[in-house]
Design a protein that fits this description.
The strands form two sheets. The protein has a five-stranded parallel beta sheet with strand order 2-1-3-4-5, with helices on both faces. A two-stranded antiparallel ribbon has the order 6-7. α2 (37-47) packs parallel to α3. 23% of the residues are buried. By secondary structure, the protein is of the alpha/beta class. α4 links the parallel β4 and β5 (103-106). The chain folds into two domains: 7-139, Response regulator (Rossmann fold), CATH 3.40.50; 161-202, no CATH class. The chain contains eight helices and seven strands, in the order βαβαβαβαβαββααα. It has helices spanning 15-25, 37-47, 63-72, 90-99, 111-147, 171-178, 189-195, 197-202; strands at residues 7-11, 30-34, 51-55, 81-85, 103-106, 161-162, 168-169.
């Protein structure tokens, strides 16, 4: 789902960090909060935020495990996760990336850095969402076209078409069921001459 105002989920077991993130980001974003990884997974699944800012060290479920669970779920795997961490050694950062994180922000927060990283990843996420929606639209259009391709069994006399279930239906019914076409009826010149010959001669 796409919100008009980007929605951020900030996950941290320290209230002061949640409040600070809200002050820095709240003017341009809708900010949701959670205090542990388990809450974060449930809230992310329900609300589908544009971005998650996730603390690493938390009770109940830490940020790494929460991120792994989010990435394992098709409903949340596309939501980018930025880790909030005071751990800046290489090993800790690599663990975060292996868990599925896309970036990290060191604690304590620097407002300009936090805003810049959030803006970058929100813009990237929304661009990817638009691309996925376009691909889905094209796939649906292609599927509709494919329904009308290939060999169609058609009666040589009445011109009915046999569908995939083996039933015969009128040509216009079949096409209406397999495309977005609408029909309007008229009479071609050949049929007019064949069926309305006398009337045409009377008015001729």
């Amino acid at each position: 789902m796409t919100h008009e105002k980007p929605v951020l989920l900030v996950v941290d077991d320290t209230t002061s960090n949640l409040e600070l993130a809200g002050l820095i980001l709240g003017s341009d974003h809708e900010v949701l909060v959670a205090t542990d990884g388990q809450q974060a997974v449930a809230l992310a699944t329900a609300e589908q935020p544009d971005l998650i800012l996730m603390d690493v060290m938390m009770p109940v479920m830490d940020g790494l495990e929460a991120c792994r669970r989010l990435k394992a779920d098709p409903r949340t795997r596309e939501i980018p996760v930025i880790f909030l961490t005071a751990l800046t050694d290489t090993e800790a950062l690599v663990k975060g990336f292996h868990a599925g994180g896309v970036d990290y922000v060191g604690k304590p927060f620097h407002p300009e850095e936090l805003q810049a990283r959030v803006a970058t990843h929100v813009a990237l996420k929304r661009s990817q969402d638009r691309e996925r929606a376009l691909v889905k639209e094209l796939e649906n259009a292609l599927a509709r076209v494919k329904q009308l391709s290939g060999l169609l069994p058609i009666c040589a006399y009445c011109k009915k078409i046999r569908n995939d279930q083996g039933y015969w239906s009128q040509l216009e019914t079949y096409i209406s069921d397999h495309s977005e076409a609408d029909f309007t009826h008229g009479i071609c010149p050949d049929c007019a001459r064949a069926f309305f010959k006398e009337a045409m001669e009377d008015h001729g």
